[in-house]
Design goal:
278 residues, alpha+beta, 2 domains, five-stranded mixed beta sheet, two-stranded antiparallel ribbon, 7 helices, globular
């Protein structure tokens, strides 16, 4: 029985939302509302006057958009200008920073022979780890959340298996693979189902590895992964077909029509044009 996704079309906004919700299931926060963030930085040293101002602007835009969308539920003609929020009115203590870091991920010496990056020296995780930080009432930065963490933020423990992917994100993966399988350059293959299945499997493995700090276009990231999966199955099937055709030719039987129409047979390749051997 084939699962029919309810999603009609995919947008980066919806995909990013489901990625965020899925990653949150692997995280621990001091307060539930701290799961959202206003800006991503690489380290605490990057939190300065400019980054704080940028975070305030992002938060103001987000709040303005949410207020406008809520107003549209009752008034279809509500203007977005009436709900704009001045970022200068937002307090520094209200913004939340996401810091990409491996500090809370246990070390794993020997996991890889050659350590080429920070990730190679730590436990393998299913997406880039991060922490959430904010200013307290005394203008001190405090940690309010950790990824791959279970229990209390400060007294809890590392865990990478307690979360899960949301159902909607899984449906998006299925929808993306089904739509890709109908493209003109792949829909004619008899092993189309195998290609689609391999693509879905690949997305479940790398789906949460998308890094929001480097891009806001997960659709392109997933499409590239699906394309590679389809090409991989095509290459495997072509290699298997060539082996079958070689065996048929060695036994004096006709190979597939693809081999017959593509060029010289195996015997012709072995003996050249049939001329004398000197």
């Amino acid at each position: 029985m084939t699962i029919q996704p309810k999603i009609k079309y995919l947008t980066n906004k919806d995909i990013l939302k489901e990625i965020h919700l899925s990653k949150n299931t692997y995280c621990a926060f001091t307060q539930p509302e701290y799961h959202d963030y206003d800006m991503i930085v690489s380290s605490l040293e990057k939190i300065n006057i400019r980054s704080i101002a940028a975070a305030k602007k992002n938060r103001a835009q987000k709040l303005s958009k949410l207020s406008h969308e809520h107003a549209l539920l009752t008034d279809k003609k509500a203007s977005a200008r009436n709900f704009e929020i001045d970022y200068k009115k937002i307090s520094k203590q209200d913004v939340i920073f996401r810091i990409m870091t491996f500090e809370h991920i246990p070390l794993a010496p020997g996991r890889k022979k050659t350590v080429k990056s920070t990730a190679d020296g730590h436990e393998k995780v299913n997406f880039p780890p991060f922490q959430h930080w904010k200013f307290d009432d005394r203008d001190n930065l405090i940690c309010i959340g950790k990824s791959h963490w279970k229990g209390d933020v400060h007294l809890g423990e590392f865990s990478k298996d307690h979360g899960k992917m949301t159902n909607d994100l899984a449906r998006m993966f299925i929808k993306l693979c089904e739509r890709y399988a109908t493209r003109g350059n792949v829909r004619g293959y008899t092993y189309n189902d195998e290609m689609r299945g391999q693509a879905i499997l690949q997305l479940t493995q790398i789906g949460l590895q998308f890094d929001e700090s480097k891009s806001n276009n997960p659709f392109a990231y997933y499409t590239a992964a699906v394309t590679n999966s389809f090409v991989r199955i095509i290459n495997i099937e072509k290699r298997n077909q060539n082996i079958r055709d070689d065996i048929l030719e060695m036994n004096g039987m006709n190979p597939s029509w693809t081999r017959q129409n593509s060029g010289p047979s195996l015997s012709e390749k072995s003996h050249g044009d049939g001329g004398d051997w000197d």
